[in-house]
Automatic annotation (TrEMBL):
It comes from Jiulongibacter sediminis. Pfam families: DUF1501. Residues 434-455 are annotated as: Disordered. This is Twin-arginine translocation pathway signal.
Amino acid sequence: MDRRSFIKNTSVGLGAVGQMRVGQMNLSSFDSLYQVDEENDNILVIVQLFGGNDGINTIIPHEWPDYYDRFRPRLHIPSDASIGFADPKLGIAMHPSLTNGVNEGMLGMYKNGKLSVIQGVGYQNPNLSHFRSTDIWFSGIVPYNDGQKLPTGWLGRYFDQYQNKELPESPYCIHVGESPLLLFQGENKESAILLEDPEELFDQGKSVESEKIELGEQSLFADEFNYINEVGVRINHFSKSIKEAFDRGSNREDYQADNLSNQMKLVARLIDGGLKTKVYSVSLGGFDTHAGQGALGGVHSQLLYQMSAAISSFQSDIEKLGHSSKVVGITVSEFGRRPYENASSGTDHGTANVMFAFGDEVKPEVFGSNVAFLPFFDAENLAYRYDFRSIYQEIMRTWFGASTFLSETVLGGKFALIDKVGFLKSTQPDASLPAEPVVPEINQDPKSPNNPYSPYSVTEQDKFTAFPNPTTDGKFVLSMILYVESDVAISQVDFKGREMGELLKKKNYRPGSYFLPLELRGGAGLHILHIKVGHRNHYVKVMKL
């Protein structure tokens, strides 16, 4: 085997052997803070949806009129085909492809308490480049600018804690695929090996030395040789434990014959075989649906069909095998798609997206309500509700049992639990964590005295923004966010309060986000919109040049 093939097929790391520092202090002296000797045997499975999954057509705002009429006139999923699955007050439904698989697919998992739906996940100042945004999600770092380097992944930094430990029996992480991921890159080493075929990996392992060869530091090629030599020692070691686990393990559930299902089938078998690997990563590509995305039966529907089948078969398999209490999975995609469809019957790169968490130990809830309630941070993209690092931090602290010190060191700070309670059943609220500074929950009974968005409350939370403002020709769009069903009427007054005419006759609107094209009356100058929402009055200034 030539060197290039060897490195490609045996990319392996152990958790960085280099030094990760806080100030000038080596973290290897902080074992008590890192809980190195107390880690549990819980497992994380990451399902990467490469290309940017269209979250709006995955969990559908099927009671949002603009979804059908304004944003997705050709690409919407018909209301009579979408599957209502949660509290009707939320106004959401699942794509019908998510019923594919054993026990009604992912829909059945939600019904059986094995699926969390987390809507509006993203980060501040989102980057819409596939490569850069993937690096941001994998690194767990939101850079200050596009020039900031992202050299390590959040799981790579997490497993750096084992830098001075002996070679373990099983690799810390396994990525089922051909190419290394930044996700697992530590300060000096990767924490994952690449795996496609355990039999092939075992044969590769037998072809390399099991003992380290000392070349000597004076050799011209010492660094390169020592690296390859070290990789060889580890692949020889890990190939044996992986092959043994594969031979011992089995599958008890049927899987579809597609790539993602085959990947998850392999993961379930290795878990059943007793491999002590902590994190598995699998992937499904094809989500960059700029053109020909399709509605029912289209490309995106087919991808969700595969995802639902693979995840539901995996969940059923590990339940039958008796391992489901220690396995949790999450779906990850570098960004979502824009609410507006494009001229090519597709959707362009967007921002806030939906994530799924699955397993026995997740809360079977919908977090984040309906995307219709997320404001636009510009004219085209949704603002996020939850920082994706909140999910990472909860995984480290609750699922892996890491210390607060370690999780904050890995991510560079504290991040709020999802809705202050988290998506894992065993998560304990932490008063030291900040509250999320994004859109609050809104789908409560409007007549409830505890609902701050109720028309019966003294607090007025309706939101209105005009753009462009100033306007040169008097034409503009009013962005309107309503938290309760209300009658809305809009009239125009001048700066002295004199009526200039009605711009919108009274009309009933359900809760959600709306974009109303309007045109000012009169000439240049400052104009004021009088927006009457039920019994509440709002005023927005608009300048005409």
